[in-house]
Amino acid sequence: MEKVTISEFKATCLRLLLNVKKTGHPLLVTRKEEPVALVSPPPPPKPKAWLGCLKDTVRITGDVISPASGEKDWEVLQD
Q1: Which residues face 5 on adjacent strands?
Q2: Across all residues in the chain, what is the average pLDDT?
Q3: 10 or 72, which is more confident?
Q4: Once rounded to an integer, what is the mean pLDDT over residues 68-75?
Q5: Cβ of 73: how many Cβ atoms within 10 Å?
Q6: Distance between CA atoms of 64 and 20, rounded to whole angstroms?
Q7: How far apart are CA 32 and CA 60, in angstroms?
Q8: What are the residue boundaries of the structural domains of the chain, listed by start?
Q9: DSSP alpha helices (H): ranges in 1-79?
Q10: Which range, of 21-25, 33-37, 59-63, averages the lowest pLDDT?
């Protein structure tokens, strides 16, 4: 774990935060050798739930109830 003083953290805050995010290693900020803050990287994003992940991605454009072919093509309906 990297240690920096509070004055160094104040001077180079953006660079240090980007480094924490990039490396994934936490950063300990100290003041007079006493820990003041612990900067840690954000947790990885949670995967989306598979249930409902395709909601609103399908569009029904025709009649989904009637058969795709005519009645004469069905062997069951022929006498």
Answers
A1: 30
A2: 88
A3: 10
A4: 74
A5: 10
A6: 53
A7: 67
A8: 1-42
A9: 6-11, 13-23
A10: 59-63
Parallel/antiparallel/unpaired status of strands 34-39 and 27-31: antiparallel
Count of C-beta atoms within a 10 Å radius of residue 6: 14
* CATH of 1-42 given 3.20.20.140, 3.40.50.2300, 3.10.450.50, 3.40.1620.10: 3.40.1620.10
Distance CA(2)–CA(22), nearest Å, equals 14
> With 80 as the cut, is the pLDDT of residue 31 above it?
yes
The two three-digit tokens of residue 79, written as one number: 């006498």
Banded model confidence at residue 33, pLDDT cuts 50, 70, 90: very high
Is residue 69 pLDDT above 80, yes or no? no
Question: CA torsion angle for 51, 53, 54, 56 (degrees, to 10)?
Answer: 110
Helix (H, G, I), strand (E, B) or coil at 63: coil
